[in-house]
Every structure is written in structure tokens, then in C-alpha cells.
Amino acid sequence: MYSNIWRNFIAAADKAANTVILAVGPVFIVLAVGLIGLATTVYFTVVFPSFYVWDEDYIWTKIYYYLGLIFSIYMVVCIFFHYYMAVRTKPGGVLNVGTEQSDSNDPTIQDLFLELEEYQEYPKTCKKCHLPKPERAHHCSVCRRCVLKFDHHCPWIANCVGHFNHRYFLLFMTYLVIGCFYFALVGWKPFLLSLGETGWDWSMPRPYVALSFLLAVAIGLALGGMCSWHYYLIITAQTTVEFYNNQYARRTARAKGEVYVNPYDLGPVVNLCQFFNVGRNYKYPIYTIFLPIPMSPPGNGKVWEKNPMSYANVQTEISEDTD
């Protein structure tokens, strides 16, 4: 009896927490845009003019100035573009596969079952939303729906990170981390001046400069670790959810004297090319990674290319069991 009461309490608390996370998403977006906007304003009003000094008498200082200005604008554009796309792009649901399809073209449940039956003898069904569950799809307890190639729900974008917006999310983190470390590298002198009481020639108040510098360092370190973790997952063809599932599968296989092979791991280089959809066998040229333009991921997020070694291991296990 008490165990049932406790389980019901945990379920209710989890549901309430997920509801709060979903509700406060827009607040996190406003906060993120505000903090990045503050740091950007401080950079162009204080940090940039203090580091890139204009000198009419030397051509090299002018070139240096313009190169720094172009780089700075490029970084700001990339940060805001990829953040906007990560927020606005649907990660991909079971019945609505992305932003390229309208609701009138969304597949029905019957269509989805028929599509999955081409690749799976018995298509899986989600135990929570009771819909067909493609491979690599997982149920988000916050959004209460299955998401294609689900990685996690991020409150800072008020959205799930999934098949169609994972690329934007990763590039947003990448550019933001680079921008934070660059801000700290060129802005440490104005930061030290902002801590004093004299020698301040800027219209921007000192506390804003100090706050922006500390935020850049803190976010650069924290987000840098998270960004590195996501690159590791990508080059090993895993999502955050799949990483923990694969860890369990490896331990189980090791206990049986077997070797587990991630079926989606095609090698680090191919995994990266597949994720960004660039390279010889994919849609876009490699240089498009550095352009702030919309780019679709490969495939529909329901069916994925497999590593032949995973099939070899399965056949070996079957033959051993038969013997």
C-alpha cells in the first residue's frame, strides 16, 4: 500500500516538475538573449575599441582593426542565428517529421506503421504515447511526445534537441564557447579597470563590464565541457540517452563474454559528416558548416544506416547459440 502511495507521489512530482520546465521555457529564452545581448553590447562599446586601436598612420593597424571587426560580427551573427534556429526548428516528431512538411502532409499512424514495417518486422510502440516508435526515437517527458533521435530537452531553448535541430544546437554552443573565451582573452584589461575606482573613460557602467566578463568565463568553462561532451557523442554516433543505454549493453555483453558494437557507429569521420550532412556522400559541401544558413540533416530521422560489424556480431551469436 505504502509503496503504491510513494510511486504515485513520485509520478505526480515528476509530472509537476516537467510542467514547470515546459512553462518557464520562454523565460529562459528571454534570459539567454538578454545575457548574450548584454555581453555583445559591452564588447562593442568597451572591449573592442580598447583592444583594436585605430591608427590613421599605419595601414597594418587598419587591416587588423577591420579583420577584428569582421570576425566579431561573424561570431555574433552565428551565435544568434544558430540559437534562433535551435529554438524555432522542431526536433522532429513521430507524426510530424520536421519543419519542411505542413500538417496537411503529416503521415497518419497507419502510414507510419507501413513505413516502419519495410525495415522492421515488428515496429515498436511507445508505452507512453502509444504511437509507433522509430529507431533512435525516445519519449520526452516534458513535451509528452516521442522525438526523433532524441538527445534531451533543453529549457534554454524551450525545445527538445532532436534530429532536425541537433546541428543548430551544437553549433550554437560551439560559437558561444569560442565567443566567451575570445571575450575573456581580449577583455581582461577593461575588466580589471572596471574593478577600480579611477581610469574609466567609457560610457558603459563598470558593473556591466565586470558582470559580462565573469559570465563569459563561467559560461565558457561550463558550456565548453558540455560542448566537448556532445562532440564526443557525435563522433561515436550516440545521443545522450543512447550513451547510457550503450553503457548498460556493453556491461551486459561483457558479462556474457561478448562484444557489443554500437549499430549506428560508422567511424568518427563518417559520423561527423553524417551529423552535419556534409561531404562527398552527403548533401552539402564541408565549408557550409561555417555559414549561418539553414541546413537539413540527412534522412527522415526514422531509419538509419547500420554498422556491418553489428550484424556480424549478431550472426556470430546466433551461430554459437545454434551450435
Automatic annotation (TrEMBL):
List locations, semicolon-separated: Membrane
This protein's membrane topology, according to the annotation, is:
Multi-pass membrane protein
The family database entries (Pfam families) matched by this protein are listed as: DHHC (PF01529)
EC main class here is transferase
The cross-references to InterPro entries, in alphabetical order and at most eight, read: Palmitoyltrfase_DHHC, PFA4/ZDH16/20/ERF2-like
Q: Which UniProt keywords are given for this protein, alphabetically ordered?
A: Acyltransferase, Lipoprotein, Membrane, Palmitate, Transferase, Transmembrane, Transmembrane helix
Molecular function in Gene Ontology: protein-cysteine S-palmitoyltransferase activity
The primary location reported for this protein is: membrane
Which chain regions cross the lipid bilayer?
20-43, 63-84, 168-188, 208-234
Question: Domain description from the entry?
Answer: The DHHC domain is required for palmitoyltransferase activity.
Q: What is this protein called in UniProt?
A: Palmitoyltransferase
Organism this protein belongs to: Gigaspora margarita
